[in-house]
Each structure stands twice: as C-alpha cells, then as structure tokens.
Amino acid sequence: MRALIAAGIGLAAALALVLAVTAIGAPPGETSEKPLHTTVPAHP
C-alpha cells in the first residue's frame, strides 16, 4: 500500500513539474541559421 501511495505522490509531483514548466513557457531566444558542424577525429 505504501508503494502505491509513494508512486501516486511521485506521479503527481512529476505532473505538477510538467505543468509548471508548460505554464512558464520556453525562455526567449533565437535559433542559429548555421548548422552545427562537428568533426570526427581521424584514426592514424
């Protein structure tokens, strides 16, 4: 029974966190037009 209560509390906390982040919204910012270039190290 305790496990069910703990799982319910955890689920409610996670849902509250998701709703809070959704309500606040994404931080303002810009995306770059340039793609990110990565290099793969060459093997000798």
Q: What does this molecule look like?
A:
The chain is an all-alpha fold and 44 residues long. Helices cover 52% and strands 0% of the residues. It is built from 1 helix and no strands. It has one helix at 2-24. The protein starts with a helix and ends in a 20-residue tail after the last helix. The mean pLDDT is 85. This is SPW_0924 family protein.
Give the topology, please.
Layout (H helix, E strand, L loop, with lengths): L1 H23 L20
Please give a handful of descriptors for the protein shown.
SPW_0924 family protein, 44 residues, mainly alpha, SPW_0924-like, elongated, single chain, 0% strand
Residue-averaged pLDDT = 85
The main β sheet shows up as: none
Stretches where pLDDT falls below 50 for ≥5 residues? none
The percent of residues in helical segments reads 40-55%
Shape: elongated
Secondary-structure element order, N to C: H
Task: Briefly note the structural class of the backbone.
Answer: mainly alpha
How many DSSP H or I helices?
Answer: 1
Quantity of strands, as a count: 0
- The amount of beta strand, in percent, is under 5%
Q: Radius of gyration, Cα only, in angstroms?
A: 21 Å
Q: Report how far apart the termini are.
A: 60 Å
Protein name: SPW_0924 family protein
Organism: Streptomyces spirodelae
